[in-house]
Amino acid sequence: MEKIKTGIASFGMSGLVFHAPLLHANPQFELHSIVERSPKGSKDIYPDVNIVASFDALLADPDIELVIVNTPDTTHFEFCRMALDAGKHVVVEKPFTVHSHEAETLMSLAEERQLTLSVFQNRRWDSDYLTVKKVVQNKMLGRLVSFESHFDRYRNFLKPDTWKEESLTGAEILYNLGAHMVDQAYDLFGMPQSVFAEIGIQRSGGKADDYYNLNLKYENLSVNLKASYLVREEGPRYALHGTLGSFLKWGMDRQEDDLKAGKSPSNPDWGIEPQKIWGKLNTEINDLHFTGRLASLPGNYNAYYDNLAAVIRGEVDLIVHPKQSLDVLRIIEAAIKSDKEGIRVSF
Fold first, then answer.
1. Residues 43-72: pLDDT tens digits?
2. Which CATH number fits domain 125-301+331-346: 3.40.250.10, 3.40.50.300, 2.60.120.650, 3.30.360.10?
């Protein structure tokens, strides 16, 4: 198969840490061009890459088939629209767009142009999430009644000179970390019946919200999604409870830290969690009580790009479909409405 020549719209954190290393390590893609309005050092890491000074120049290159839109959230709609109009397949960083009606417009445009459009929901391939998904799908806890997920950090200061500390959308952490967590809940359980949310600023002097607590209501199941920048002592990343038992999982998937450290996704031990952070399972299996550690499944972010390559070549269906990401946006918008009005929002 001919390699898919790919251009990246920015060499900030997501370009440097996620997209460029994953594309470079995947034999189905060619990392062709990167937009750098000022030098960011991509040429030092990838000597064969083309450096272009603008997004327009990226789109003007007829060799590029796929464009990665990894620019600030508020630019996603316009940049995706421009890329689709230029006849390019598009991967956009989460959130899909800021408003769901913008996402609908992009979906229609992609369908009209017969182009692939997908949101980079790489955390569907976190080792901890893949393990949680197996627990849920195999009904290891009986009928699930409670699902809680945390994405906590300890950063009691404000980062200088970053758009992520500015109030651009009115729900920064929800569009950032929340887009991943809501997507995981949606992937597991589908669209909720209703949502109730608390969103706020906890750090002194903050302009962008840095905390949320979402409750998604399903039939006979309560899903709680929480994130904060002021959690110094780590609790469980996931806590699942059902009629037969519980599953608790500490620790974070290692792929982001390994990418930051310059490790290659082609390493044979890629995505494998250390045994010390395997989750604890306490349940009944075939009427026998079991308690112990459950080995984590290996994480694999490049599974996203493997699927994307096969989709672009017309071989398989898209795993992260834009319709799913549109529903995730609708849940986020309902959460914002819930917080502002102090009400539970039904779908």
1. 999 999 999 999 999 999 999 999 999 999
2. 3.30.360.10
